[in-house]
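Running low. Invent one:
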Amino acid sequence: MKKTIILSLVAMGLLFASCEKVDHAVNQKVTYYPVFDIQGGSTVAWQLGDSWVDPGFAATYKGEDITSDVDIDTDLDTDVPGIYTIDYSFVNEDGFAGSASRTVVVYDLANASDVNIAGSYSNLTLIDDGVDLSSRVPYTMKITRGPGVGLFYMQDLLCGYFSIRAGYGNAYAFYALIQLNKDNSIDLLQTKNAWPYAIEDNGGSNYDPATGAVTVNWYWGGWGEDLTCVYAN
């Protein structure tokens, strides 16, 4: 009996010992990042040929003004039309970087039209090297206002051929930024899509005020062919 009692007490001691809280010290350090205030908008339209003047920015770090210590990096060239990015960054005392950016659209702002062509277009034409593919894109596409006067976003220069018809999704839509000029001509300023092939402006693109049709002529390296995209109603 005595042996049983002794063994039970030992077991209880082990049980209580296993329930004791073990406090493991962990070294933790909080790092702080800069807070940026990009003034004048994250996207700015800029007149071709005009010297760049930053609309302004501010930055704080742990509540202190560090604006003068911010690094600015960009390849902006206001003599060349295009879409540029300005990066603002600051590296904190722990070696971690914080950043913000601004997009600058350089184009012939003085020649931009104030006509609004934004809207939904349900009569689409897609021509691939003379072959009419319009029957394969019975969709509705949108044109929305861009970041400046005369600038507009086209939903898809392939009229939903891959993004909707093939079911690939919006990443495979040929998004485009276009400029509508006062003479109703259209310049293709920028395109984005998931394909790694060249896209070029073939010229001759235009807006027809009589019909409301928007026509963009372009070249896509993926097919290696010239294309015409028409949004109409």
Q: What stands out?
A: The chain has two helices and 18 strands. Residues 54 and 82 are 17 Å apart (CA to CA).
